[in-house]
Write a structure and sequence with these properties.
Rossmann fold, six-stranded parallel β-sheet
């Protein structure tokens, strides 16, 4: 009887579960699997750093609304992937991480790339972490891992496969492959909750729907768009949910900052918030009430009931899938006609464009002869093909671009999430390119962020991925520099300066095309040339690091009194005086 190695069983099991793409970085622990992939028609996309492989699998999962798979080696390969694993965990991305490990029979012998417990280390940042100790168990444990990653609140899972299991043998006749799980049944809201939500909406004067990453499914996007149109309810998105509604949808009111402007600037706060798949916390203004006013009624819909009631109680709490919840709401609307909210929508439209309008008169080029980042970002965003999937990565560079950036659809616009990880952009772009063959992808990077995984220009070139990388090069860690200026003064800068590096030449060295741009008028032609070339390209866009984005001042604690210490990004520290 023919025998199969553990690596071959792993490849066959992944194939049986619908996996066609694996993101990887070579290691000898994996060879039995890697060489088996071709026979199962599984494509390997190998990156230059394990974190990038994990980020690529994350982007692939979001774009395809399915599982992403990252297979990497033991020891430092595993530890290099921990950042990507944690990033996926905090941002609820369904990724299957598989790593090798030393032989089971050599435990406690100080083996190569061993001596610590990978399973225990992965456990706090995954939904499930397990070591496979028998070749015959590979199929059912792969099946369990994928079902766990995709069910309920999505998230990463981890499987450790020791090399003696990966290279071990089993009889082919004993192989029982898994079948693709049917996870189409999603929890729907109870009838009385639907009735209460519609009643509250009917009584509201200034309602708003806030969507988050839990609303990025195609079903949720379709149902929310229909509900907003029928009930004349504006929709805003947090940073993870750009693309739930098309940018030009008449009830797309932009990012959650629109509500902040209505609350603080126009003094017209929303009186009802329907919070859908959006976790309370950083991306919704924390405990400040700057996005969700304390006085507003709150409906919270989340597939993870543990998220409901975080920071404040909900008037209506619904543990349900976002798409199913709005399908039920739409069905319950019947033939009722809802009154337009023209004044409210008009105000939000003004608030949405407030920052862009305020900055529009800034000079194209500063006194230093460099491009103003506002105009550079606008020129890039407007020149990109409309169906471009976006991976953004950086502090102020991303903030400038996100004023204008538009998503090509749910799950096609992604960047730094709750972990605040820099270095995600290249990996995300690689995953998006594999998820959308033949369609444009752009990585929008700061010069600080691009340095983390700069060797991924090699992966883009080797795999022929026509990714456009735009680097806003201001020769500094922009948000950090401007934060220090605000708190400590411009004379006290430390560890925030960078060189005006020729990143386009670095990209050329790895086999990509590259071009430096110093004038705003040259940006659009360069973007269009790059996207029509079918080649991986780096545009090194030189901007002025002295220009601070307004968001930095908002994130650096503003002092309300002498009884507080301003700290970056978090609530100020109160000074307790005796």
């Amino acid at each position: 009887m023919a025998q199969l190695s553990g690596g071959a069983v792993l490849a066959k099991s992944l194939r049986a579960l619908g996996v066609r793409e694996v993101f990887a970085l070579h290691g000898g622990h994996l060879d039995s699997f890697l060489v088996a992939c071709a026979g199962e028609h599984i494509r390997l996309t190998d990156t230059r750093h394990e974190a990038s492989a994990g980020f690529a699998a994350t982007a692939y999962a979001r774009a395809r609304q399915s599982i992403g798979v990252c297979v990497i080696t033991a020891g430092p390969g595993f530890t290099n992937s921990l950042t990507a694993m944690t990033d996926a965990y905090l941002d609820a991305a369904p990724v299957l991480f598989i790593t090798g490990s030393p032989p089971l029979r050599e435990v406690e012998t100080n083996p190569l790339q061993g001596g610590f417990d990978q399973v225990a280390m992965a456990a706090p940042v995954t939904k499930w972490s397990h070591r496979i100790t028998n070749v015959e168990r590979i199929p059912d444990l792969i099946d369990k891992a994928m079902r766990t990653a995709l069910s309920g609140r999505p998230g990463p899972v981890y499987l450790d496969v020791p090399i003696d299991i990966m290279f071990g043998l089993m009889d082919e006749g004993d192989l029982v492959l898994p079948t693709q799980p049917d996870l189409s049944a999603r929890p729907a809201p109870p009838h009385d909750a639907v009735t209460r939500i519609l009643s509250m909406l009917a009584e509201a004067s200034r309602p708003a729907i806030i969507v988050g990453g839990g609303a990025l499914s195609l079903l949720a996007a379709k149902e929310i768009a229909a509900f907003a149109s029928r009930t004349h309810t504006p929709v805003v998105n947090n940073a993870k949910a750009n693309g739930v509604l098309d940018r030009d949808h008449p009830y797309n009111a932009g990012g959650v900052g629109t509500l902040g402007a209505a609350i603080v600037g126009a003094k017209q706060p929303p009186d009802l918030i329907i919070q859908v798949g959006a976790r309370a916390g950083l991306l919704l203004g924390g405990r400040s009430g700057a996005v969700i006013p304390d006085a507003a009624k709150l409906v919270q819909i989340d597939i993870n009931a543990a998220e409901i009631g975080r920071l404040r109680g909900a008037d209506v709490a619904v543990a349900a899938d976002s798409g199913e919840a709005f399908r039920a709401l739409n069905a319950a609307l019947g033939t009722k006609k809802w009154a337009p909210r023209d004044a409210w929508m008009g105000l939000l439209a003004q608030c949405r464009n407030q920052m862009a309008d305020a900055l529009a008169d800034a000079p194209l080029h500063t006194e230093a002869g460099l491009m103003h980042p506002f105009h550079a970002a606008r020129a890039v965003a407007e020149a990109l093909a409309p169906d471009t999937a976006i991976a953004y990565d950086g502090g102020e560079s991303s903030a400038w671009f996100n004023i204008f950036g538009r998503s090509a659809g749910p799950g096609l616009y992604m960047g730094n999430g709750y972990l605040g990880t820099l270095g995600v952009g290249q990996g995300f772009a690689i995953g998006l390119a594999r998820a959308r063959p033949g369609k444009p992808v752009a990585a929008i990077m700061g010069d600080g962020a691009v340095g983390f995984q700069i060797a991924e220009f090699d992966a883009m070139a080797r795999h022929g991925l026509p990714i456009l990388t735009v680097i806003f090069n201001n020769a500094c860690w922009g948000m950090s520099r401007h934060g220090q200026e605000l708190v400590f003064g411009a004379q006290n800068l430390a560890a925030v300066q960078l060189a005006a590096t020729n990143y386009h030449i670095v990209a050329q060295g790895f086999g990509c095309d590259g071009e430096q741009i110093t004038r705003v008028g040259d940006i659009a032609p360069a973007v269009q040339r790059a996207q029509s070339s079918g080649r991986p390209t780096c545009l090194n866009v030189m901007t002025d690091g002295a220009v601070a984005h307004p968001v930095t001042a908002q994130m650096i604690g503003q002092l309300d009194s002498d009884d507080e210490i301003a700290i970056p990004y978090y609530e100020n520290i109160p000074i307790r005086r005796s």
